[in-house]
């Protein structure tokens, strides 16, 4: 069998041409497509990471907001309790003050009543004493006693003037 | 100017007592001749009360008793 060197060389050249054509027409666009796909995947991953990161930040903000809201609610509740206690103290103080006023008023009324009764009793006593004294002294005075009393009275009046 | 003078005693004034009252009223009014009305009121018990134009000089036993009780 005879080896045809020329044909082999021609076949090699043909193969090289086919390889070159395939490289430029098939492998390069495919490589480009693969690169673009990788790039898109990479961007997708980056976007995903960014989204996760944003979600985490959002969760953190929500937690902070919840914490602030709880603190605010606690503060409002404490303030309300404080105000309620203060109002309660005020109500108790008012009640005590009113009770004290009523007690003082009652004491004053009792004192006034006692004073009036004492004055009435004194007046009655005085009237009785005067009436008894008039009856006793008036009956026992003689004409001479009357003359003496008139004389003494005139002397006192002149001295008083 | 005429003065309104009232002298009150527990009994009727005797002439002697009237003379003493005249003297006293003259000294009180500052006039030598005075006219006055006399009243008898047993309630005063004794002594004399002289009222000159509303001003009262009270030296009665009843007034002294009341003063004593009110002290």
Task: Describe the SSE topology.
The complex is a heterodimer of chains A (161) and B (71).
Chain A: H1 5-140, H2 143-160
Chain B: E1 5-9, H1 15-29, E2 37-40, E3 47-52, E4 55-60, H2 61-70
Parallel strand pairs in B: 1-2
Antiparallel strand pairs in B: 1-3, 3-4
How would you describe the overall organization of this protein?
The complex is a heterodimer of chains A (161) and B (71). With 161 residues, chain A is mainly α. Chain A has one domain. Helix content of chain A is 96%, strand content 0%. Chain A is rod-shaped and about 205 Å long. Chain A starts with a helix and ends with a helix. The model of chain A has no long low-confidence stretch (mean pLDDT 89). With 71 residues, chain B is an alpha+beta fold. Chain B has one domain. Chain B has two helices and four strands; from the N terminus they run βαβββα. Chain B has a four-stranded mixed β-sheet with strand order 2-1-3-4. In chain B, helix 1 (15-29) links the parallel strand 1 (5-9) and strand 2 (37-40). Chain B starts with a strand and ends with a helix. The chains are: A mainly alpha (161), B alpha+beta (71). At the A-B interface, helix 1 and helix 2 of A face helix 1, strand 3, strand 4 and helix 2 of B.
Secondary-structure element string of chain B:
EHEEEH
| Structural class label of chain A | mainly alpha
Rounded to an integer in angstroms, the radius of gyration calculated over CA atoms of chain A is: 64 Å
Number of strands of chain A: 0
Which whole number gives the mean pLDDT of chain A?
89
Unreliable stretches of chain B (pLDDT < 50, length at least 5) are none
Spatial ordering of strands, largest sheet of chain B: 2-1-3-4
Portion in beta strands of chain B: 25-35%
Oligomer: heterodimer
Total beta strands of chain B = 4
Q: How many distinct helices of chain B?
A: 2
**Share of residues in helices of chain A:** over 70%
Beta fraction of chain A: under 5%
Amino- and carboxy-terminal Cα gap of chain B: 39 Å
Largest sheet of chain B: 4 strands, mixed
């Amino acid at each position: 069998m005879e080896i045809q060197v020329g044909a082999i060389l021609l076949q090699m050249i043909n193969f090289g041409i086919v390889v070159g054509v395939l490289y430029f027409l098939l492998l390069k666009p495919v490589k480009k497509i693969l690169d673009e796909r990788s790039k898109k995947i990479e961007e997708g991953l980056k976007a995903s990471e960014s989204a996760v990161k944003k979600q985490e930040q959002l969760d953190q903000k929500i937690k902070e907001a919840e914490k602030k809201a709880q603190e605010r609610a606690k503060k409002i509740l404490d303030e309300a309790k404080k105000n309620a206690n203060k109002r309660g103290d005020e109500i108790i103080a008012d009640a005590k003050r009113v009770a004290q006023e009523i007690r003082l008023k009652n004491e004053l009324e009792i004192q006034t009543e006692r004073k009036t009764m004492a004055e009435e009793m004194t007046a009655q006593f005085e009237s009785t004493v005067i009436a008894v004294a008039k009856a006793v002294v008036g009956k026992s005075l003689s004409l001479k006693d009357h003359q003496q009393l008139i004389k003494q009275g005139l002397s006192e009046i002149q001295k008083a003037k | 100017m005429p003065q309104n003078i009232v002298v009150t005693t527990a009994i009727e004034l005797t002439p002697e007592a009237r003379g003493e009252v005249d003297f006293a009223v003259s000294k009180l009014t500052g006039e030598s001749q005075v006219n006055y009305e006399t009243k008898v009121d047993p309630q005063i018990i004794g002594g004399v009360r002289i009222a000159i134009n509303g001003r009262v000089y009270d030296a009665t036993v009843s007034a002294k008793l009341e003063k004593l009780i009110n002290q």
